[in-house]
Amino acid sequence: QKEVEQDPGPLSVPEGAIVSLNCTYSNSAFQYFMWYRQYSRKGPELLMYTYSSGNKEDGRFTAQVDKSSKYISLFIRDSQPSDSATYLCAMSVSGSARQLTFGSGTQLTVLP
Amino acid sequence: GAGVSQSPSNKVTEKGKDVELRCDPISGHTALYWYRQSLGQGLEFLIYFQGNSAPDKSGLPSDRFSAERTGGSVSTLTIQRTQQEDSAVYLCASSSQTGGNTIYFGEGSWLTVV
Description:
The structure holds two protein chains of two kinds.
Chain A: E1 4-6, E2 11-14, E3 19-25, E4 32-38, E5 45-51, E6 54-58, E7 61-66, E8 71-76, E9 85-92, E10 101-102, E11 106-111
Parallel strand pairs in A: 2-11
Antiparallel strand pairs in A: 1-3, 3-8, 4-5, 4-9, 6-7, 7-8, 9-10, 9-11
Chain B: E1 5-7, E2 10-13, E3 19-24, E4 31-37, E5 43-50, E6 53-56, E7 65-69, E8 75-79, E9 88-95, E10 104-105, E11 109-113
Parallel strand pairs in B: 2-11
Antiparallel strand pairs in B: 1-3, 3-8, 4-5, 4-9, 5-6, 7-8, 9-10, 9-11
């Protein structure tokens, strides 16, 4: 079993839909949780960063962490075609970038 | 530079040949990371540099893989006697300090071994 599980999709939604992307994990010591967005043939870019449990909102994006269930989510409101990308979750125990564990990514397409 | 720069962006090589992949991190970033991304897989950590030293080489998959960093800046990842299973995207990232989670990725070197 992988330490971090992520549904690879592909996920296809109409423009304006609310998108929910999820990851589950097995290591209860994870404290830092991130979402990266990766456009085709580009490197990943950090989208959201949260520490411990709770919600964090940034514009149309909301990240949720439920440590009791070992489950994290990324919600995208009013999705746009420009949101079409692969979304990778990542997490770490110590907060050190060299100890990040990544999910395999979910491919999202937002149809105009 | 403005961002992390990697070269070559694409490389097709024959099985058994050696390849060198280069990474030029963001100016002033002391930490540098190499990851590998295979189709349908997450990012696999390979090696991390702090300055010119590599305190963590735990992710290098075999002794065919090596990396060095000179002048606290440019890094080279070398794969000797390439195998087909080495085909992947090799991503380099850098950060201003090892204690932070904010790392900045390059666009990757797409390696195909035929």
